[in-house]
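Budget justification aside, the reviewers requested a transparent look at the raw inputs and outputs of the sequence design task funded under Objective 1. We therefore reproduce one unedited record. The lines immediately below are the C-alpha cells for a 206-residue chain.
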C-alpha cells in the first residue's frame, strides 16, 4: 500500500494532509461498501490508482477550475477526491449530486468527517441550477444520456470532463445524433484503456 501511496503522491503532489484524508475516506468507503453497493469490492485494494488517481488526474486538465459538479457522485469519485485535493484553496467548492438518498447520506458523512469544501445535493442532476467551472461524472450513463443530465451546467458556462471507458468514441458518435458539441479525447493516465472526454459548446440538435 505504501508504494501505491508514494506513486499517488508523486503523480499529484498531494500533501500529508491530503493523504491522511484519502486514507480516512478509503476506510469509511470500505466499511460502507459492506452494506451498500458503492464500488466493486475487488477494486478497493487498488484504491490509490483505480479510484484516487483516476479522479485526481482531472485537476491537471482544468488547473484554474475552482468549482466542480460531480453528477451521480455515488461513492465519491471523482468528486470527493477533488474536494480533498482542493481543500484549503480559496473559492474551491464541489457539488456532489446524486438522486439516491442512501448514497447522499454516505457522501454527507464523508464531507462532515473530513470538513470538505463540498455540498451534497440529493436530487436529479438535470433539475439543479448550479453554476460551476467544470461538470464531471464517472460511470453514470452513456454519453447521449449523460449530456442530458449535464446540459443545465453547460448552459451556465461549465465545461465538461467525463471519465469514460474504451467505448468513449462510439458513445460520442451516438451522442451526436442528438447533441452538437466540441469534444476531445485523452487517454486516461490511470488506465490506458480509459478515456477522458473534454467537452464544450453543448446544444441539442433535435
Amino acid at each position: 500500500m505504501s508504494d501505491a501511496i508514494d506513486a499517488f503522491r508523486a503523480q499529484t503532489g498531494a500533501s500529508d494532509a491530503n493523504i491522511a484524508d484519502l486514507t480516512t475516506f478509503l476506510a469509511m468507503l470500505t466499511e460502507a461498501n459492506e452494506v451498500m453497493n458503492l464500488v466493486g469490492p475487488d477494486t478497493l485494494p487498488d484504491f490509490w490508482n483505480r479510484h484516487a488517481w483516476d479522479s485526481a488526474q482531472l485537476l491537471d486538465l482544468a488547473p484554474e477550475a475552482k468549482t466542480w459538479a460531480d453528477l451521480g457522485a455515488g461513492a465519491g469519485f471523482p468528486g470527493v477526491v477533488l474536494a480533498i485535493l482542493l481543500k484549503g484553496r480559496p473559492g474551491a467548492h464541489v457539488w456532489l449530486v446524486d438522486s439516491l438518498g442512501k448514497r447522499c447520506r454516505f457522501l454527507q458523512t464523508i464531507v462532515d468527517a473530513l470538513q470538505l469544501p463540498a455540498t451534497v445535493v440529493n436530487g436529479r442532476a438535470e433539475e439543479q441550477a448550479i453554476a460551476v467551472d467544470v461538470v464531471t461524472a464517472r460511470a453514470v450513463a452513456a454519453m447521449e444520456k449523460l449530456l442530458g443530465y449535464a446540459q443545465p451546467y453547460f448552459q451556465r458556462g461549465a465545461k465538461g470532463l467525463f471519465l469514460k471507458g474504451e467505448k468513449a468514441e462510439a458513445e460520442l458518435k451516438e451522442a451526436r445524433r442528438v447533441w452538437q458539441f466540441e469534444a476531445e479525447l485523452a487517454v486516461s493516465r490511470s488506465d490506458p484503456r480509459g478515456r477522458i472526454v473534454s467537452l464544450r459548446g453543448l446544444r441539442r440538435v433535435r
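Residues 57-204 form a domain with the Rossmann fold fold (CATH 3.40.50.150). Strands lie at 67-71, 93-98, 118-122, 134-138, 159-164, 179-187, 195-204. Computational costs for records of this kind are itemized in the attached budget.
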